[in-house]
Amino acid sequence: MSESFEKHAVLVVETSEEYLCSSAETLLEGMVRLGRKCIPIGCVNGGCGVCKVAIVKGHVRKCGPMSRVHVSEEEESQGFLLACRAMPMSKVELKIIGKMKKIIW
Question: How far is it, in rounded angstroms, from Cα 45 to Cα 37?
Answer without folding.
Answer: 17
